[in-house]
TrEMBL record:
<comment type="similarity">
    <text>Belongs to the leucine-binding protein family.</text>
</comment>
<dbReference type="InterPro" id="IPR028082">
    <property type="entry name" value="Peripla_BP_I"/>
</dbReference>
<dbReference type="InterPro" id="IPR028081">
    <property type="entry name" value="Leu-bd"/>
</dbReference>
<protein>
    <submittedName>
        <fullName>Branched-chain amino acid ABC transporter substrate-binding protein</fullName>
    </submittedName>
</protein>
<feature type="signal peptide">
    <location>
        <begin position="1"/>
        <end position="23"/>
    </location>
</feature>
<keyword id="KW-0732">Signal</keyword>
<dbReference type="Pfam" id="PF13458">
    <property type="entry name" value="Peripla_BP_6"/>
</dbReference>
<feature type="domain" description="Leucine-binding protein">
    <location>
        <begin position="33"/>
        <end position="379"/>
    </location>
</feature>
Length: 391
């Protein structure tokens, strides 16, 4: 009898050890927490994006933790500063993956940074969720652990070309873009849509991110008699190019993408950027937005961080909400496979800001490829086209 009891006890202990070992094989997940990481710019040239974006994500996680977590697990969120540099991103990623043992990473900052880190990250089965870049490589080519949030630079410029040619009758399209991974991604969308519509660029110029004098480039495009200029630019070079165009009295329309969709562009003194249009994956909502959920978000952000949320904060909050939805749908028995299945079951997710509905599936890793068209009016971004557009 004693032998039987001892044998049963031994079997139970062995079973418990196997169960514990099985639970431990899910990196970053215990019975009480989920570890999530981010590397982003907290002190470099894109600090306004990195800090506000990660702050809003932390706020969303704090809110869900205050409600008891996700299936009883609280989120532990770790953010590392990459200073918008590739070497720092690799260092930060190594820490998050190998020391902090994160389950997944969200909103990693920068196109070249993500491209450099992702091969090792994905090889270690760490999902890359909603990077803080609109580059197409964040979701394409397909990988089961790569998820993009909304329309990419590529999508935005394809939709812009289609809109300008088909609905506005533009015939002499030109482009100015950064000679970087970002700028080339923008131009890939321009070229692919032009090829699909049998249209050719009349002229184009490429510049370094540090260039400041655009007078010669603008003169070249004016000589080409462009009737619209597509911009693969961010904030500083957008403002400088628009100023150079207006300085010579040229009233040509200009169309940018979400990297230029910033208050610092709309609010240039003297109304320099008045009339500039921009394709954007989501709309920035101001302090006067009356929707209760938006008001609650803005109030909570101000109370927590002592400043108004910017566009990057809004994107971060939406990304966190989609992630929370995926984790919730994964169920209590959280694993890599159940998480992927949970994300793939999301249909027509609507954030609080009125972004295009986001849907994922077995072969769908981008929530939406629809884009809004915004225009600068009286120092603010306003809707230029009522509904989101695509191609």
């Amino acid at each position: 009898m004693r032998r039987t009891i001892r044998a049963v006890a031994g079997m139970l202990a062995l079973l418990a050890s196997f169960t514990g070992l099985r639970a431990q094989t899910v990196r970053g997940v215990t019975d009480t927490e989920i570890v999530i990481g981010t590397y982003t710019d907290l002190s470099g040239v894109t600090v306004a994006w990195g800090v506000n974006n990660s702050n809003a994500i932390r706020m969303a996680f704090d809110e869900v933790n205050a409600r008891g977590g996700i299936h009883g697990r609280r989120i532990r969120y770790i953010v590392e500063d990459n200073q918008y540099q590739v070497p720092r991103s690799i260092q930060a990623s190594n820490k998050l993956i190998n020391r902090d043992n994160v389950f997944l990473m969200i909103a990693n900052g920068g196109t070249p940074m993500n491209n450099a880190v992702m091969p090792d990250q994905l090889a270690k089965n760490v999902p890359n969720m909603f990077p803080l870049t609109s580059a197409r490589s964040m979701y394409w080519p397909y990988h089961r652990l790569k998820f993009g949030l909304a329309s990419s630079y590529y999508d935005q410029m394809r939709a812009a070309v289609k809109l300008l040619v088909e609905q506005r009758g533009k015939k002499t399209l030109c482009a100015m873009y950064q000679d970087t991974d970002f700028g080339r991604d923008v131009m890939e969308g321009v070229r692919d849509q032009m090829k699909a519509m049998n249209v050719a660029l009349a002229a184009e110029t490429a510049h370094k991110p540090t260039d400041a004098d655009f007078s010669a480039a603008v003169a070249k495009l004016r000589d080409a008699k462009c009737d619209v200029i597509l911009l693969g630019t961010i904030v500083r070079d957008t403002n400088q190019i628009v100023a150079a165009v207006r300085k010579i009295g040229w009233d040509v329309p200009l169309m940018a993408q979400v990297a230029a969709y910033d208050s610092a562009v709309a609010e240039v003194p003297g109304g320099v950027t008045e009339g500039l249009e921009c394709m954007t994956s989501v709309l920035f909502v101001g302090k006067d937005d009356p929707r209760p959920a938006v008001q609650a978000f803005q109030k909570g952000y101000r109370e927590k961080y002592g400043r108004d949320p910017n566009f990057a904060a809004q994107i971060g909050y939406s990304a966190a909400q989609v992630l929370i939805e995926g984790l919730t749908k994964a169920g209590r028995n959280l694993s890599l496979d159940s998480f992927v299945a949970g994300m793939e079951s999301i249909r027509d997710f609507n954030d609080i800001f009125g972004s295009p509905p986001m849907t994922y599936g077995p072969n769908v890793r981008q929530g939406s490829n629809q884009s809004y068209v915004a225009v600068v009016r009286a120092g603010k971004w306003q809707l230029s086209v009522e509904k989101p557009v695509g191609y």
